[in-house]
Design goal:
single chain; 442 residues; alpha/beta; Immunoglobulin-like; 2 domains; 7-stranded mixed sheet; 4-stranded antiparallel sheet; 21% strand
């Protein structure tokens, strides 16, 4: 069973859990957890269907094991863009095909187009044995010396036909054919359901904008937005969605304005997703230089000052050209409408990262260390208060908050015997954005 979570208006929750509100003014220990996790859905040409969790090191060392291609291949560019700043990727392979590539000697281990890049060479040796070599994109990935096909051991690329006739030698290799990668929008529903049990900082949506609100892509994009709102506000799971050109007016959605003129119009969402996940609670992406692999002259970044001001007013995360470089204009989300309880400070992603850090880490602390274990008496509440204070002191060391005092945290018993109420005040730190200087000349 999942713990309850999310925001509250009155203290009437039934499920045990952590319910945390953030408003404007007018591990199991109390540690600040690491960020840098991105969830993304992609139709891969190889590999198991469903979720693969990759660290940056694992991607660099074992990419071919998971996806057939080495990490340097052009098909892996989107992951390299994400990993530029992130440390972990939760990748959902949404290839729905069951069609594997095959030839006389066997079939590809997985369905997908990449199977068509496999070939098998069979050479007869002087001692009547055979050397069977598996190639992927003309690179030998497996070599075996056998006397019959029955002795062939399946490898990471091929499941061999044990009844094959090896006397029919194939110098230069016999190519496999018939592998297909298939995708339908329904796979996105399966993706969102699958990641509910995972923790991540950014959800990446690479679906192109569509002017027709009835179009399947437009409906799916809205589904991503609504999913983010539900998970953040009802379930208390704090992450942000990175999506291209979506006026969501919500602090949990980062709307990228820039298009890319390459093969994929939304390709920049991968780099932005990695950046927004990889920034710590004490960091801002404002003025960050684009250092990914997209060609700079194909990025739509030549905007006038008036256009850039308009983008900020309308809640767009935008890259702009600064001399020969392309940089992040402002580290903001799509929130436009401000209220008494959600002021303009919530437009800054750094603020949201700080709030999300507090919500996720304090919830983990309470759900793991306190629920059902610590009595709701004065000593128990003092222990919780001490842990929360220590956590905020770490945030201050990270320069995420400032001017923190112990009495900014108040822990009281709630309206029931089992409930605890926490009040806190924080002064968030954001990166410098404007310089106003007056020079007096005498």
């Amino acid at each position: 069973m999942a713990y309850g979570g999310g925001i509250f208006s009155i203290k009437n929750k039934i499920l045990p859990g952590s319910y945390i509100n953030f408003v404007s003014t007018g591990n199991v220990d109390a540690n600040v957890s690491e960020r840098g996790v991105v969830a993304v859905c992609h139709a891969m040409g190889w590999g198991k269907k469903g979720i693969t969790v990759l660290t940056k090191e694992d991607f660099q060392k074992n990419c071919a094991t998971y996806f057939a291609y080495p990490c340097t291949d052009r098909n892996m560019k989107f992951l390299r863009e994400i990993f530029q700043y992130s440390s972990k990727v939760i990748l959902y392979n949404c290839n729905e095909s069951v069609r594997k590539a095959a030839n006389t000697y066997g079939e590809s281990r997985y369905p997908g187009y990449a199977g068509n890049l496999i070939s098998i060479e069979v050479l007869q040796n002087h001692d009547s044995s055979f050397t069977v070599t598996t190639y992927f994109i003309n690179t030998a990935v497996d070599v075996q010396k056998v006397r019959t096909a029955a002795q062939l051991a399946d490898n990471g690329y091929v499941v061999f036909n044990k009844d094959a006739d090896l006397d029919d030698t194939q110098r230069g290799g016999l190519v496999m054919t018939g592998g297909v990668t298939e995708f339908t929008p329904a796979a996105y529903v399966a993706f969102l359901n699958a990641i509910e049990s995972y923790s991540f900082n950014v959800l990446c949506c690479d679906i192109e904008p569509n002017d027709d609100p009835e179009d399947t892509d437009a409906v799916t994009r809205k589904m991503f937005v609504e999913y983010t709102k539900r998970r953040r506000d009802s379930d208390g799971v704090k992450f942000q969605l990175v999506i291209m050109d979506e006026a969501a007016d919500y602090e949990g959605v980062i709307s990228l304005k820039n298009e890319y003129g390459g093969t994929d119009k939304t390709e920049l969402v991968y780099w932005v997703s990695g950046v927004c996940a990889g920034m710590t609670a004490g960091q801002s992406a404002m003025n960050l230089k684009y250092d990914g692999e997209c060609e700079l002259d194909k990025i739509s970044a030549d905007y006038t000052g008036a256009e850039l001001e308009n983008f900020i007013k309308n809640g767009y995360f935008v890259l702009h050209r600064a001399n020969d470089e392309i940089r992040v204009l402002s580290d903001i989300n799509s929130l436009v409408t401000v209220t008494d309880t959600k002021g303009s400070v919530f437009k800054q992603n750094q603020t949201i990262r700080i709030c999300d850090q507090i919500a996720n880490d304090i919830a983990l602390l309470f759900n793991t260390k306190y629920i059902g274990r610590v009595p709701n008496d004065k000593a128990g509440r003092l222990s919780l208060w001490s842990d929360i204070v220590r956590f905020h002191e770490q945030l201050e060391e990270l320069r995420a908050i400032e001017d923190f005092k112990e009495d900014d945290i108040i822990v009281e018993r709630g309206d029931t015997k089992t409930s605890v109420v926490v009040y806190e005040a924080i002064n968030v730190v954001n990166g410098m954005g404007q310089l106003y200087m007056t020079v007096t000349v005498v």
